[in-house]
Write a structure and sequence with these properties.
Number of strands: 12
Structural class: alpha/beta
Helix content: 25-40%
CATH superfamily: Aldolase class I
Bound molecules: ligand PBG
Radius of gyration: 18 Å
Order of helices and strands: HEEEHEHEEEHEHEHHEHEHHEH
Strand content: 15-25%
Number of helices: 11
Length: 324
């Protein structure tokens, strides 16, 4: 089966995330997961966001859950000695990301919504999102690797595997892989409309995933591209079986969010990316001014048609009661 609308309804927490009308219910908090124990490293370009080992992450998420933040997106940060040209470690159940998913799911079960980043870039020694062959990022050699990573996340218990790589045809391949492994309740959040943006800089510091040569222009969308290509990407991912369609970045593409949300039937997510977060942090000297700015930004996402908002501001917005 290609399309399983029940995936987004599978748990009350998934239903709140996708279909709730309040801003709080649609927020997703991102996290960076590293190896080791007791690790809680600040990221200088992203004040307030840390890289955490599984034990620390569990206590962070415990506090988040107690405040009512139930949706979490996990990014792996892979030690350089675990990186290679094919990202082979990314699909190992021993990695901190898979361990975190297992532990969080055994603790919270259906009360938590866990999304996991599926891409090669954090685990390749060259930092590219795919397999490099003849100095190019090879689409079709990358797909099987993405499928392995997605399956390992789903087996660990992820609610949504989040394909951020921008290879052609990967949603269909991941769907087929999940179906043949019997993982029929796992959803796919597709970064369908992801631009080759200059707003990802702080994230690449955080995840140590910057490409060592070249750029991401051959797979991520051209920033000059018009609505036709955005709709083509969104509609084809929807047909391939994506359960949530993402547009990224958010602030500079709100017009695209509106176009995409009018064109697809599945929930639409926006990613309020690292550079957008850092800009707001740099522009606001105190909590009061930040609260107002973030509230205004979140309403702009909703107005553009976003059902789900992934934002590094989630925790402070919920903790500070900024959204009432
Ligand atoms: C991995 C990935 C990136 C982001 C999310 N997943 C970086 C990239 O494409 O280089 C960016 C997130 C952010 O900037 O907050 N491919």
């Amino acid at each position: 089966m290609n399309i399983r609308p029940r995936i987004n309804r599978w748990t009350p927490a998934r239903r709140d995330l996708n279909f709730g009308h309040s801003i709080i219910s649609c927020l997703v908090q991102p996290h960076f997961v590293v190896a080791g124990s007791g690790v809680d490293q600040e990221i200088s370009s992203m004040p307030g966001i840390n890289r955490q080992s599984v034990d620390v992450l569990l206590s962070t998420i415990a506090k988040d859950m107690a405040m009512g933040i139930t949706a979490h997106m996990l990014f792996p940060v892979v030690d350089s000695h675990d990186k290679d040209s094919t990202a082979s470690k990314a699909s190992s159940q021993d990695m901190p990301l898979q361990q975190a998913v297992k532990q969080l799911k055994s603790k919270y079960g259906k009360d938590i919504v866990l999304m996991t980043d599926v891409c090669l870039c954090t685990a390749t020694d060259h930092g590219h999102c795919g397999i490099v062959h003849n100095h190019e990022i090879d689409n079709d050699l990358t797909i099987p690797e993405l499928c392995k990573i997605a399956q390992s996340h789903a087996e660990a218990g992820a609610d949504y595997v989040s394909a951020s790589d921008m290879m052609d045809g990967r949603v269909k391949a991941i769907r087929t892989t999940l179906e043949s492994a019997g993982l029929v309740n796992t959803g796919i959040l597709s970064y369908s409309v992801k631009y080759a943006s200059s707003f990802y800089g702080p994230f690449r510091d955080a995840a140590s995933s910057a490409p060592s040569f070249g750029d991401r222009g051959s797979h991520q969308m051209d920033i000059r591209s018009g609505y036709d290509e955005a709709i083509l990407e969104a509609v084809s991912d929807e047909a391939e079986g994506a359960d949530i369609i993402m547009v990224k970045p958010a602030l500079t593409y709100l017009d695209v969010v509106r176009q995409v949300s009018d064109a697809v039937a599945r929930p639409v997510a926006v990613y309020n990316v690292s550079g957008e977060y850092s800009m707001v942090m740099a522009a606001t000297p105190d909590e009061e001014s930040r609260a107002k700015m973030v509230r205004e930004i979140f309403h702009s996402f909703k107005r553009a048609g976003a059902d789900v908002i992934v934002s590094y501001h989630t925790r402070e917005a919920v903790a500070g009661n900024w959204l009432n």
